[in-house]
Specification:
The chain is about 15% helix and about 25% strand. The chain has about 70 residues and is an alpha+beta fold. The chain has one domain (about 5-65): Alpha-Beta Plaits. The structure holds iron/sulfur cluster (SF4) (2 copies). One iron/sulfur cluster (SF4) binds near residues 6, 50 and 51. One iron/sulfur cluster binds next to helix 2.
Length: about 70
């Protein structure tokens, strides 16, 4: 049985903040570190609280957040 979880690809993030605004649980935070393009990527430290609603995936213009299948 496969389940879904969120996968954030930090190198694609441009720090626009759209996903943070779209999350009904305010789970996405901006990291202190920077990616190779000089942006602070978002992360999901409390992933167990994520409902997998997909709002953040829909609004990200850079496809930096995707669903990942886990077994
Ligand atoms: S899938 Fe929904 S609950 Fe989970 S981080 Fe994205 S917007 Fe928040
Ligand atoms: S919407 Fe995408 S590019 Fe913008 S901060 Fe979120 S993950 Fe990064």
């Amino acid at each position: 049985m496969k389940n879904l979880q969120l996968l954030i690809i930090p190198e694609r993030c441009k720090e626009c903040g759209l996903c943070r605004d779209a999350c009904p649980k305010q789970l996405l935070i901006t990291e202190d570190n920077i990616n190779s393009s000089g942006y602070h990527p978002v992360s999901l430290p409390n992933a167990e609280k994520c409902s997998l609603c997909g709002n953040c995936i829909l609004v990200c213009p850079d496809l930096a957040i995707i669903y990942e299948e886990v077994s």
